[in-house]
User: Fold this.
Amino acid sequence: MLDVRPQPALHDTVTALTQRLFHEARLLDDERFEEWLELLCEDVSYHMALKSRRFRADRSAPIAVGAGNVFNDNLARLKLRIDRLRSGFVWAEDPPNFVRRVVSNVEVLDADEPNEAVVHSVVVIHRNRIDGQTRLLTAGRTDRWRKGGESWLLAAREIALDHSVLPDSNVNVFF
Amino acid sequence: MDVADLVDTSTGRQSRSIYSSEPVYRQELERVFGRCWLFLAHISQIPQPNDFFRTYMGEDDVIVIRQKDGSVKAFLNTCTHRGNRICRADRGNARSFTCNYHGWSFAPDGALAGVPLENEAYFGELDRSKFGLVPVAQVAEYKGLIFGNFDPAAPSLEDYLGDAKFYLDVWLDALPGGTSLVGETQKMVLNTNWKLPVENVCGDGYHLGWAHAGAMMAVQSMDLSGLSVGNASANLEGGLSVAGLNGHMALTSLDGVSGYAFYPEPKPMLDYLEANRPTAIERLGKLRGEQLWGSQINITIFPNLQFLPGLNWFRVYHPKGPGQIEQWTWAMVENDMPEEIKTTILDNQCLTFGLAGLFDNDDGDNLAACTEQSRGWRTSQMDVYTNMALGRSGAREGFPGDIAAGLVSEHNQRYFYRRWQEHMQASSWSDVPAYNLNSLASREAVDA
Assistant:
């Protein structure tokens, strides 16, 4: 017997959340940051941890004070990043880079909370930058989306960046 | 190539070819990275026996290993048989390192410990003692920082650091518990020549209010020598550009608090500083304890180590050819700090100078474009200049070094390129000049 647990969410939930991810990606591609913020819960957690390459058999102690983060953001800090991007002083984004997100491998699962869903996805961010070169940033994402009224809002996003050395000179993008 | 023509310290001129020329780069690997003391790891990163940390010296892959007796050894990360890399992990703990290719294994002390088919195929005739891992010629520690040097004839680490220790100790020795690096290594590829990020941090307060204006608007919470968004102002009385110390530099404010100017909520940090300032004064003397400890200080150890008390990042640049580097960054803390202060520092370092750092993300494209604009047929024949405040430096009571006023000056950059040229012209250490300008007679003179 195939044990499917947690149960796959209902078909309309899957459709709604998949559409939500695609819509979110388009808002970010178009730098519609203020509209993107409206998709986030007040208590949103947006997180990407630092990693290292370790031997599978490695038994060394956990790193003191923690691994550190690329993003460790709440709503206020995400707004801080957007304030910077909107300041007119971020020369690395002027002229704008060509940025396009491809979102795939969407998997929607029931969450512990009745009004929430866990959503796994993969995002590939294409950046054709000021030097004419293209960088691809690939990450896995595990989200919690919360139903607020008629709409789904992002409550938490855990991002796993799949690069041991960042192949670009900045991360002026959201995943 | 005549190195004498590439840099002119008296006018602040550099030939752009030093950022793009392959022959210049090959000579740097030999005469700068092959000769200078290079940062390898912090003792806090390899606390236990058999802990290891992988890094680079120039383009050479190196493993740093804590020994059973507590000492530290460093080896080239290459099998002595056919040359394969023996350690592929960034860090960890290992009782041995086994080569993937034919299975030779090496002990943490570098000894060749195992050779498959040693009797059957080598007929028992292999002299294992001649095939141990190749050690880095010199390894030494200064207050927690482990350095390596490929040149057995290089001066001792203590002599190499010289009077820069006066400034280093403001971070490394202010409190009895010492310091640590924390967090995983933040690694980023930048398409820049390695000298440009060093120059950017060693003395270039000029770019701060302009290149980082967006970040300053977002997080600046305190005055930093009058530097402001759009470079509208600067207070030259508020800081020092310190050079003339064998290629090492410090760029420092003097208020004892502005290290935390780029913390959106600096109060817990300021409370911590005030609670511990009497100890810092006791250990460092009044001048350093009051004016430097807690200030924003950019410290550069020639050629490629930089760390900034206050913003609390610690960084090395590993060259990957004339036009590319890997930039490695960590957060740094004082071990006497309460856990919540350490956590705040790691968090703020990642926010400001991490991979998605609000400030750090402003620099990469500028440095890459400066590099690219030195590669053309015409541009490679052109010059660039660090000629701000030429001739406006001298002694400053209580502080070693040749010192210019303020954080906005190009005084330090000129000394950086002067030291680079001195190394590039010297065929061995005996030809490298030594100078610790305005050296202090003794530590007591400072404390008095």
Summary: DSSP finds three helices and six strands in chain A. Chain A touches chain B at residues 48, 50-55, 58-61, 63-72, 77, 80-81, 83-85, 87-92, 129-131, 164-172 (CB under 8 Å).
